[in-house]
Amino acid sequence: MSNEGRFIDNLRAIALHPAARGLADDAAVLEVGGEALVLTHDMLVEGVHVLPDQDPADIAWKLVATNLSDLAAKGAEPLGVLLGHMLGRDDDRFAHGLVEVLGRYGVPLLGGDTVSGGPPRSWGLTAIGRATHRPVPSRSGAGLGDGVWVTGAVGAAMLGFEAVRDGSGSDASAYLRPQPRLAEGVQLAPLVTAIMDVSDGLLLDAFRLAEASSATVAIDSAAVPIAAPEQRRWDALRWGDDYELLFTLPADQAPQIPATRIGMVEPQSFVPLFVDGQPIANAQGLGYQHG
Fold first, then answer.
1. Residue 149 is inside which H or E element, if any?
2. Is residue 290 part of a domain?
3. Which strands, in side-by-side order, build the sheet including 76-86?
4. Residue 112 maps to which CATH number?
5. Three-class SS state of 268
6. Bond from prior residue into 120 cis (ω within 30 degrees of 0)
7. What residues contact residue 32 under an 8 Å CB cut-off, 6+ apart?
8. Which of 152, 155, 231, 263 is least surrounded by Cβ atoms within 10 Å, i.e. has the fewest?
9. CB 192 within 8 A of CB 249
């Protein structure tokens, strides 16, 4: 188990409120006055999630977008964000990017905190949303025979990262300025049995969805749309940062949004995941994990 996994296991002994969902979901769901608030917090670290010389305007965009993607996986409508910002170079550029992304998605900045520190610098954001459907979907509801689906293609962020890293001048927008699937999440929330966003790699996130659902997911890798050359298919399936939605639907249903069926939910087996018929017992190497 990774250091991250061990630490989260320790936190599960503390996070006993029902809103925490056992720390096994994309976000917390807090019932308040007849509404369900969806709360999430993600961080970016220089040299880990973003390159050290990256334009701070793009960092601000990605910080907001990654958090909004968690709201999308709950079918939530964004209500506002709280920012944690470490001061440093080009803070004005960061503020400019923040204006752009918040304006793009119509989300207000509600507050937050600024600190000095680094390098490396880090940034955090809490996003608050309102559930548009009850019960709020989770990772844990996939059932036997369900189809496994994904919106869009994977691998574009991988190519974008490489373009920025190598200075090739190729299109890097998928990595620098991801587009959270908010509208799709709202449409899917009443239909799905399980859903999450693809942040750490399609295969790793499918493994996690299967574990949360106490099920086995079988993926047909050739069915997954990729935005990379065919010889990079395996890399695209593991790289992450795509922020598409991975979800399950009953076998006789299809979504009313553009999406591709890439597998199915099978009877629980000795492993959570099969890829092209091969059992995957360990999440190691399936995607990005801290520590």
1. strand 147-150
2. no
3. 28-32, 35-45, 122-131, 76-86, 109-115
4. 3.30.1330.10
5. coil
6. yes
7. none
8. 231
9. yes
Give the integer Cα–Cα distance in Å for 62 and 68: 10
> Does the bond joining 135 to the residue before it have cis omega, within 30 degrees of 0?
yes
The bridge status of strand 76-86 relative to strand 122-131 is: antiparallel
Residues 280 and 291: their CA atoms lie apart, in Å, by 20
State pLDDT tens for residues 180-215: 999 999 999 999 999 999 999 999 999 999 999 999
Burial of 51 per CB tally in 10 Å (0-12, 13-18, 19+): middle
Domain that holds residue 67: 3-131
Q: What is the pTM of this model?
A: 0.94
Q: Is residue 119 reached through a cis peptide bond, with omega within 30 degrees of 0 on the bond before it?
A: yes
pLDDT digits (tens, 9 = 90+) for 70-129: 999 999 999 999 999 999 989 999 999 999 999 999 999 999 999 999 899 999 999 999
Is 242 within the bounds of a domain? yes
Instruction: Extract the tokens encoding 54.
Output: 């990256």
Judging by DSSP bridges, how do beta strands 35-45 and 28-32 pair with one another? antiparallel
Eight-state DSSP code of residue 50:
B
Q: Kindly report the CATH number assigned to the domain that includes residue 222.
A: 3.90.650.10
